[in-house]
Predict the structure.
Amino acid sequence: MLAKRIIPCLDIKDGQTVKGVNFVNLQQAGDPVALGKAYSEQGADELVYLDITASHEGRKTFTALVSRIAAEINIPFTVGGGINELADVDSLLNAGADKVSINSAALRRPGLIDEIAQHFGSQVCVVAIDARKTEAGWRCYLNGGRLETDRTLFEWAKEANERGAGEILFTSMNHDGVKKGFANEALNQLASELTIPLIASGGAGEIEHFRDAFTIGHADAALAASVFHFGQIHIDRLKEYLKLENITIRQ
């Protein structure tokens, strides 16, 4: 069994880490470089940095910040937000990012997934999916959860998989920031239908929620933000707990 990964996520707005509930009501959580360094020292396996307003504001993501992060942090990190073409990917990788996360741009132009996979390798391409469970089922959203699309979670995730994505990062908008647990039923279905790793996002509030994402949802990694940012869960203690639950994790 592949070791499960713990991934802190840092949402960036105006150069600061922020966190909200259900994608709104943002509050500041600290300096992104200092937080990332602390998580690395606590035992995080990877980090994800998302420029959460880049797509909505129609601008490129933060290459200068990426360079600062790369200079200070020695674990892999993914960067997302405002990535629309291969040149964007190239500049972020050159600045020190290990992977890129694409969301809105991939929904608008799915061929971008193929292009990134062909030029840089599938391992570079994380396709992030923000989805909300509605009366019509799980629908995908654009621009940081602002615009509903006609794409459904499961068919879009499978298409991204087939086009060459290296991983799927699924965030349940219903669960985001609520701290009641991950969307384990949806995760379980995705895990059974995909051939690439699945990252669970949205809903972490207790250490047991991580266990459930791995044992019920069958996710390959679990991502969280506020529980780490505000000190409710420490990564080293979380890993000790998961070991006791017989879950294989990275040391």
User: Anything to note?
Assistant: Confidence is low (pLDDT under 50) at residues 21-26.
